[in-house]
Amino acid sequence: MTGKPDQHQQAESVADRIIERLGGRIVLALPLGLGKANLVANALFERAAEDRSIDLEIFTALTLEKPSWSSDMERRFIEPLNERLYSGYPGLAYAMALRDGSLPENVRVSEFFFVAGRWLSIEVAQQNYVSANYTHAGRYVLDRGINVVAQLVAKRGDGADAKYSLSCNSDITLDILPVLKARGEPALLVGEVSSQLPFMPGEAALPASEFDLVLDGPERDRPLFVVPREPVSAADYAIGIHAASLVRDGGTLQIGIGSLGDALTAGLILRQRQPELFADALHRLSPGNQTIKRETEGFETGLYAASEMFVDGFADLYREGILKRRASDGAILHSGFFVGSNALYDFLRDLPEEERALFRMRGISFVNELYGEEERKRADRVHARFVNNAMMVTLLGATVSDALADGRVVSGVGGQYNFVAQAFALEGARSIITLNATRRARGRRESRLVWSYGHTTLPRHLRDVVVTEYGVADLRGKSDRDCVAAMLAIADSSFQDELLDAAKSAGKIEKDYAIPQDFRRNTPERIAEALAPLRKEGWCAEFPFASEFTEEEQRLIPALRHLKHASASRLSLARVVLASLAEGRPDDEERAALERMQLAAPAGLRERLYAKLLTWALRHGD
């Protein structure tokens, strides 16, 4: 890889050049998430679909797709959103082919991490899924004989003096490039330039000589894929406050994606701005004697982040003066990839150069593991708190995060195991697993804390700290009996007796054990009561940070969620329909929401019923 890269303005000419140089066997690695070279990938897919002598294998993860819908009501919400957020974003042809069953026989696609729940019913995707730790994915790619890496890049300069930043996906690319060079086998590094992608300096910025082919054409200005921040529920906020009380000033932080990550961010900001209000909320959320040490003071030294994903929350913590502790190289954050809201992209693009250098994108082996520069990493990652989400946790401390009992994959292991292992390897570090105590399925509440489950992501010998809205269970080094007791104390009270009976039947807790009364009020109503003073002070909004959703959409999201749950069965749907018919005329806010759903002037019986149902949901939603 020397000299000036071969420059192209059309993706088709890049694809032709790749085929010319490599022949008919192409093993294409695409970064996970945002960093895929979509145009190049689509052009290669088209060539392979046209010419069945071309053998195309694609290895990737986290394939991003525009939101889809399963009902007319959902369509009314999602279609305008897609037009606003994703107009001009090129969908991935291989993903569409996987979904409609038209993937050519000479094309194979394997992923090691899915967008949560999006591929559960697609058999070919389930069959080709590769279960992998994030840090092992690179070696699996190499073992497959990869000969093309195609990545979205940011560009500075021109010609041989240009630099191309791996930006949002330094993760696996930085780890595998040296191996590819050392092997001396034909392998092409292809860059697809985006003018919208923030240029991240440091190790992520590569000279032009590293690239063989570069696509820099008229579509370089197309928008980046946006992941809107999710609404944060009362239960999420309670979890966030509990988790925030476990973070040490002067420590190290990792945050997971989604509403629980935003709830933790909001909890840390509350603790920074109003520590007394934070401490009061923590006290009201924490019945009984939970022995793990809690922190309620603001941050003087601040935090350093070592997180595989650079989530939106880190930008918020930086603006609040919480994320500010520098590691030995001067960085306040080391991360492997990012994908998020427009606000995150704007934040990174608009940062002055010297401040952007504080955020270092590195190979995933650097972020997710201790080996390699271990002494330095141990010195930097003091008092680490690695916070990850789960789908379920058993009463004996096993964590279920990636797949169902029947083997179908919901998402993937990713880096979760990596950070749990680090938590046990680093002195003073803790792994914190967060999850809501219950979920709604088929119109009913179900416990996410279970006695046992037919799949495990993290075995129970790695149990550490588990947090639900009802409190904190410190499981590290505890006996099975004490683990069961601690988990029962943070379970929803609707399920505590059933869980206790299962533990007694297995002989894991004494037959006469009774859950202390302090933990018998684990109900959504108690959480709402505990958070009420915060709401009066302006905290705990459903969207606490800048949102891609309009005001009307922010009102519609909980209403549509409530309508879906309330009409999950035929009987419950009949009840909702009858109740909605009694609703009066919509007020101005409700009318604005109806207009957003094209239901303000309903035409026909179906639309009139939709309007009634939506008005009912807006008034009676969560």
UniProtKB/TrEMBL annotation:
InterPro entries: AcetylCoA_hyd_C, AcetylCoA_hyd_C_sf, ActCoA_hydro, NagB/RpiA_transferase-like. Pfam families: AcetylCoA_hyd_C (PF13336). One of its GO terms (biological process) is acetate metabolic process. SUPFAM superfamilies: NagB/RpiA/CoA transferase-like. Residues 340-503 form the Acetyl-CoA hydrolase/transferase C-terminal domain. GO terms for molecular function: acetate CoA-transferase activity. This is Acetyl-CoA hydrolase/transferase C-terminal domain-containing protein. It comes from Mesorhizobium alhagi CCNWXJ12-2.
